[in-house]
Amino acid sequence: MSAASPLDEQNDRHAPLSSPEIVVCPNGPLLVRGDFTIAAANGGKIPRRRRTVALCRCGASGIKPYCDGTHKLIGFRTKPDTENAV
Ligand code: FES
Q1: Please, are residues 77 and 27 in contact by the beta-carbon 8 Å criterion?
Q2: What is the reported pLDDT for 1?
Q3: pLDDT tens, 7-40?
Q4: Which domains does the chain have, with CATH numbers?
Q5: Ligand 1 centre from 16 Cα, in Å?
Q6: Terminal C-alpha separation, the chain
Q7: How far is the CA of 67 from the centre of ligand 1 (A)?
Q8: Which of 31, 66, 76 to mutate to test the pocket of ligand 1 (most atoms within 8 A of CB)?
Q9: Residue 44 — φ and ψ, nearest 5°?
Q10: Model confidence at 3, in pLDDT bands (50, 70, 90)?
């Protein structure tokens, strides 16, 4: 993932809260936006600084549960038929 500019982060912080939405990115992470919390296996809250986050699903990120872009380096591929609505 590319780094967000300070202006992007400022706009994100001031965006109104909304119902959670998850976007499945082909060959990449799950984008989660809206009002939600991320819970660790022990029940604790995983901190986040942005309302929209990218969650790793390739398993190779160095900052799990977040995506750090490593999926591109390892050539992570998903099945196209799992990315589209039915
Ligand atoms: S999906 Fe991006 S690093 Fe795993």
Answers
A1: yes
A2: 44
A3: 555 556 566 668 999 999 999 999 999 999 999 9
A4: 6-82 (3.40.5.90)
A5: 27
A6: 27
A7: 4
A8: 76
A9: -70, 160
A10: very low
